Each structure stands twice: as C-alpha cells, then as structure tokens.
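During the reporting period, our protein records have gained a structure token line. One record among many is quoted in full directly below:
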Amino acid sequence: MKILGIIPARFASTRFPGKPLIDIGGKTMIRRVYEQALQAASLSDVIVATDDQRIYDEIKSFGGHVMMTAAHHQNGTERCAEVLAAMTGHIDAVINIQGDEPFIEPEQIDTVASLFKDTECQIGTLIKVCQDRELLEKPSIIKAVVSKDLKALYFSRSLIPYLRNKDAETTFYKHIGIYGYQSDVLQEIVKLTPSALELAESLEQLRWLENGYTIQTALTTHESISIDIPEDIDRALARGIFI
C-alpha cells in the first residue's frame, strides 16, 4: 500500500503569524514536524505543501520534499488534494499531518495509516480518552462521539455527550486532528460545499459526515500538543517534551 504523508503549512496565522518557521531548540517547527513524519514506517514519502516562499526555501535548505500550492485554499484538506493531483503513479491514501505539532509521534501516523488496511475505510482519524472536565469544556478542544466499532457519530466544540443522568457511565473522547483519506475520497470531499453543521461548529469534518462519508477513528494514548500561540512553546518545553 502506498501512503503519502502531506504537511500543509501556511505562513499566515491570526494568532501566531509565521509559526512554521519559529525556532524550537535550534530547528524550525516545520522541520521538526517533517522529521517526525519521516520516522513513520507506513509512509512512502512526506511532502510539505505551502503557499509561502519562505517555508518552501526552509524545507529545501535541509533536503526535504516540498511543493508550492495555490494561495486560495481554505484549509489543509484542499492543499493536500492539490498535491495528490500532481502526483504520478498510484497513491492509495493520504495522511494529512498538522504542521503545528512538532511533537507528533510517528506511531500516531502509523495508527491512522493502519486503518486503510480495511478497504472500506474512507477517512481515518484519532481520538484519545479524556476525563479532564475543565479541559473538555474548552471550545478549542474538539470532542468526539463514536459508535461501538469506533466510527465517528459526531464532533463538537461542546461537551458531548451531555450527562442528564449524572450516574451514567460514559467515556469522553478528545479528537486528535490528524486525518487520513482514501485518495479518491479526498478528491471528492474537497468538491463539497460547506454544510450547515460545519458552519455552526466551524468543524470541517462535519461536512463529510453530513454528506454521508464515514470517519473511522482509532484510539491513541499519546497526548497531542499543538503550537497555537507563542506561550505554547514554553509550556511544551516546561513539560519536558523536546525532540
């Protein structure tokens, strides 16, 4: 099976402009993400997809694979689809790796890739058990509800499920934002128009669910730490997370 890892990377960011090129212990963040992704045994290749010359030049400087993509893309999924369309030869699946997670574990990438051993898997992603109520109530933490076979039923910024019965035993899941797509499915979903649920929650994956696509989740025990604001770097390093 040929699986391509793509790391979408934009220079522009409302909360943290230029964050792909910030220095983390002597290396840029985008380089750390790239080097972590290279360690995933499941990937045939890793490519950074960017619309910024500075990021392009940084990847080239250490011998990485990079492709310039259009500036009009609304999200990383669309950027991944452009890279896929430019590839020669057959690609079975694409893994969309977040460019702001320099501490991503290669095992997480391999776990998502393993979902495509089932040819019925259209889209794959990760979830993690979380019982920290304060964390779960933050809108920035995306929650997932899944079926018994771990297919996604819904994602929300709200705490789900709502516990009307306080004595009920339930498991809360935090969504980890890494996605895998069958190649043909990726090319289909980028043609979909934004859906009502997506616009309400500002969660792209709801567009896919609303249009009848299935999202298979897998459990991970690794904590995903993204760099959204400058203070996130200090917090991560204070926890001893360093590559």
